[in-house]
Design a protein that fits this description.
Elements (H helix, E strand, L loop, with lengths): L8 H20 L4 H10 L4 H29 L3 H17 L6 H14 L4 H25 L5 H28 L7 H27 L7 H28 L10 H19 L6 H24 L10 H19 L4 H8 L1
């Protein structure tokens, strides 16, 4: 149970890192402000990110400190010193591709101008020491205090995306078959929203992979995580097919009422199975797949007979059935996760 969920785990970890960093600096007798600044920006979503960016921020902070010491020795505490220290720090970090450390290095450079006036070399090494303390403390806090559990967030997001995608499957096919596809802007808006949600979930998956280097998952948790990734990739493919549907002009459907009913029954069936595990029955699924596949090949034969009618473009019926058959195959893939096979392929 997370007692701090109402303010966020990263907020709590940042507060703890700042407290411990200031405590260590006071115990040593060094000014804590620069260490605290470094600690604040080093609490990243994963321990791996904290370490990677910490390796970049240390030399960047050293560059900022060096420029501050240089220009203080030349111009004293003046506006020109602030300006030159900031500009040179930014340019140097940019040229050396230390982008992750640019902000903290610039803050360090301009803040040092105000607080040091004598013993410039000693001040420079103290700044390096406080930066090291900030990096080390925040990384250790990120590693041991409230380690993130992205897997649970991924599970909830995949479940929500399944439901939203199933609704869009029903609505898009229903609008097409009823000839109500004139206004697709709202549908595109919903699909864009689903796409954004999937991108965020994919980002959380990358975070979980990085986090597993320092906090390995149990075998059962790893299996569930891999299954969620498998499901997410399937949802991404379904999203692709739905986008194809709404971006193709669908006109003059020649299906009979019986054929339309067969298609809509197949649509409702696959949408229901996508969002509810208990509804998935492979026999029923393949039976409905065969029905729409037979329709597809029947329409395909009709196209071959009347090739002059469609000299360059596929007819609307063929496009619709192709996308629906493809979605059926993807949903079958969605439920065909084999952890043992994946594990064997990696060994």
């Amino acid at each position: 149970m997370r007692y701090f969920s109402f303010i966020g785990d990263r907020t709590v970890k940042t507060g703890v890192a700042v407290f411990l960093t200031a405590l260590v600096c006071q115990w040593i007798g060094w000014p804590p402000v620069f260490a605290v600044i470094t600690a604040i920006v080093t609490v990243e979503p994963t321990v791996s990110d904290s370490i990677k960016k910490g390796i970049i921020r240390f030399p960047a902070s050293a560059i900022g400190s060096a420029y501050a010491v240089l220009f203080i020795s030349l111009f004293g505490n003046s506006p020109l010193t602030y300006s030159l220290a900031a500009i040179c720090t930014i340019v140097t970090c940019f040229r050396l591709r230390l982008h992750a450390g640019l902000l903290v290095a610039t803050l360090t450079a301009v803040a040092m101008v105000e607080v040091i006036h004598t013993n410039l070399l000693v001040a420079f090494f103290i700044r390096l020491g406080t930066t090291t303390i900030g990096l080390a403390v925040s990384t250790l806090v990120n590693m041991f205090i409230l380690p993130p559990k992205y897997r649970l967030h991924i599970f909830k997001r995949v479940k929500t995306t399944r439901t939203d995608t199933a609704k869009q499957i029903e609505q898009i096919f229903q609008a097409i078959l009823e000839g109500k596809q004139e206004n697709t802007s709202l549908t595109k808006k919903y699909l864009t929203k689903i796409d954004s949600a999937m991108q965020r979930t994919e980002q959380l998956s990358r975070f979980q992979k990085d986090e597993a280097k320092f906090h390995p998952l149990l075998e059962s948790e790893q299996e569930q995580f891999e299954q969620l990734q498998h499901q997410l990739s399937s949802l991404r493919i379904i999203h692709y097919h739905l986008n194809n549907l709404i971006r193709n002009p669908i006109i003059d459907l020649s299906w009979t009422e019986k054929e339309r009913k067969t298609i809509m029954d197949a649509v409702y069936g696959v949408a229901n199975r996508l969002q509810d595990d208990a509804s998935y029955n492979i026999t029923i699924h393949q039976t409905q797949l065969k029905e729409i596949t037979d329709l597809f090949w029947g329409d395909n034969e009709e196209v071959m007979k009347n090739s002059q009618t469609y000299p360059t473009n596929f007819p609307s019926e063929l496009i619709i059935l192709y996308e629906l058959v493809s979605i059926y195959h993807v949903v079958e893939r969605f439920y065909s996760f084999d952890h043992a096979k994946i594990k064997k392929s990696r060994s």
